[in-house]
Amino acid sequence: MDIKAYIASGILELYVLGKLDQAQRLEVEANAAQYPEISAEIRAIEEALEAYARLQSVQPPAGTLDDLMKRVGDSKTARPPQSKSINAAAKTNPLWWAFAAISLAIMGWMMWQSGQQNEKIQTLSTELEALKNSCREIDLANQRLRSELLILKNPDNHQIILRGTPLSPEAIASVFYNPAVQKSYLDPINLPLPPENMQYQLWAIVDGAPVDMGVFTIDPASDLLVEVPFITNPAAFAITLEKAGGSPVPTLEQMYVIGNL
Amino acid sequence: MDLNKPVGVDEKIVGLLLARDEQGMRLLFEHFSPALYGIVLRIVRNEELARELLNDVFMKVWENIQSYDSSKSKFFTWMVRIARNAAIDMARSKRFKNENKTDQLDFSVFSKNEPSEQMNVQNLELKKLLDYLDEDHRKIIDLMYFQDYSQSEIEKEFNIPLGTVKTRARRAILQLREFLKSDILKIMLLLLAIFLWLNL
Fold this sequence. Notes:
heterodimer, A: about 260 residues, alpha+beta, B: about 200 residues, about 75% helix, about 0% strand, globular
């Protein structure tokens, strides 16, 4: 269909002016529903005629509105309200709906944003807590390491290396012996893990006789020094494997390492 | 100058009327009574009758608002149809003929010499428009829009060929649109601004 020619024919003007018969009117309405240009043209014609009528407005005499409202009131009491075929709310200003929709969208977006933020805060505070904990642990380890370093740096310190016996040639340990401050430390550098119910026991050899320096456990996760009792005038240190709790005399067949001063 | 009214007023009034809200009738009257009264007054040419007719029209709008279909026509177009039919019916009634003592309706176009009740901006604007439009064109609009002449009636009475009536109606309204376009755009923007300011 040639829409331009159709519009130019003047049929739409006659339609708005109410001059078409039923068949022509239905045809125009069908075309208007199909082609936006046609419905826009009809709207423009209507607007022009409405403006033309408004230009020729005459104010009705005073009291006309009062008469009208009285008639409306009478008709309301005389007849029950008619059922509404169209929801009145659907006829409210579309701008309001647009405004409401935009407000809702903004509110929704803000709520979603704040939810996201909360989640982020949760994750961050968990992370912060974990970092604080690890910081504390590192701090503690650092303090111990510093104190160990101080021991090792002490000029009066002697380090005695305890080497593996034929029973366990790979084993090695060392004892730091400091007569100036009267302290000794053991560093179990590499000892095989003892069987169950067995423990290593450290001995000092003083004047050819073994002196008990206590039992200790091996913690593979830790490489820290273990403070041990200070013994005066030791000639050597040795470690034997004894049953848990230690033995009053060393089991010499179970000597793993030994080192002379 | 009241060439148009705020955007959305039609919808608001129709919504209120559908909800049987009397406030809708007040708004209806406020926004449409001068234009519709102008139309019916031109047809019946009697203030007393025109006033009664105007309220008859508004009562018909009140009672038949369900049959208004906003997808098919503007609210004003629909009301003009009601007003024109009611005015023509009255003009043809016995009572009208008795009161006016004449069988022949004066279908002459709106006379420029008619005593002006309110010489205001609107009338000045109207005069500008009347000067702008071709006499022949204006006559076609007036006969069809206000007086409810059919194409064939115009053909007979004014000796204008049927095809010419149609094309002249188109040219007349195009001329009208041209004249209104510049002014209306400004006014619409102004009214839209006011409307938005009032609502938001």
